[in-house]
Amino acid sequence: MIAENKTTAWYREPLVWMLVSPLLLVIVVCSILLGFALSSPDDRVADDYYKHGKLINKHFAAEQLAKSMGLAAEITLDFASGEVFLSLFGEPVIGDSLLLSFSHPAQARRDFSLDLVKLHSNRYRGELPNPFAGRWYLSLAPQAPADDRRWRLKGEVELEAAESFRLE
């Protein structure tokens, strides 16, 4: 009896595909992840991070000043009329306008700021953009302080849960 050597093409061997298929899968997945990484940059890293790091002590001082002044704010968002109302409590504030900044935790392109104009005493009003929801970081500060007293109130709010909230 003569044994017949039957040769087949390499791509018809199952053992070859068992070895090559995981490698091909890794290449495809890495290509997809690389595409995501290149198309969506990390918005939370500032270009001038060193400068921001040096200014952090000033931010703490601004929050301390607000605390020492006994400042607190009651904010009401009226999505039906597109208005925001703010009542400021504590030591009287000099100036006719405040800046209320909304910062999204993950998407910097959704960040925005509102100019709040003084109605009377410590009551302010501003115009809301399109309705928005979700979790937001808030920062309230004077537009341009007349004196050198730069204070700031900060907070975090979940807008599905509340349309009225307090910053302290």
Account of the protein in words:
The chain has helices at residues 14-39, 49-54, 56-68, and strands spanning 72-78, 83-89, 97-103, 112-120, 123-127, 135-142, 153-158, 164-167. It is elongated, with a radius of gyration of 28 Å. It contains three helices and eight strands; from the N terminus they run αααββββββββ. It has one domain (49-167): Immunoglobulins (Immunoglobulin-like), CATH 2.60.40. The longest helix is centred in the N-terminal third of the chain and has 26 residues, at 14-39. The protein has an eight-stranded antiparallel β-sheet with strand order 7-6-3-4-5-2-1-8. It starts with 13 loop residues before the first helix and ends with a strand. A hairpin with an 8-residue loop joins strand 3 (97-103) and strand 4. The chain is of the alpha+beta class and 168 residues long. The mean pLDDT is 84.
Quick overview of this protein structure:
By secondary structure, this protein is α+β, with helices and mostly antiparallel strands. The chain has helices at residues 14-39, 49-54, 56-68, and strands spanning 72-78, 83-89, 97-103, 112-120, 123-127, 135-142, 153-158, 164-167. Strand 1 (72-78) and strand 2 form a beta hairpin.
What tags apply to this protein structure?
27% helix, alpha+beta, 168 residues, 3 helices, 8-stranded antiparallel beta sheet, Immunoglobulin-like
